Amino acid sequence: MFRTALFTVVLSAPLLIQAQRIEAAQPMGGPAALQHLIEQELRYPVAALEANIKGDVTVVVGVNGDGSVAGMQVWRSVCPECDAEALRIVRMVRFAPSTATDERGAGDHYLVVPFDPSKYKRWVKVRPKKQGDVFKLPASDTLLVYTPKQLDSQVVPLVPKGNAGLGQFLADNMRYPDEAYRRNIEGVVRLHFTIEPSGSVSNMYATEELGGGCTDEAMRLIYKAPWSPGIKNGERVRSTSEVSIRFTLPQRTR
Question: Does domain 26-126 have CATH number 2.30.29.30?
Answer without folding.
Answer: no
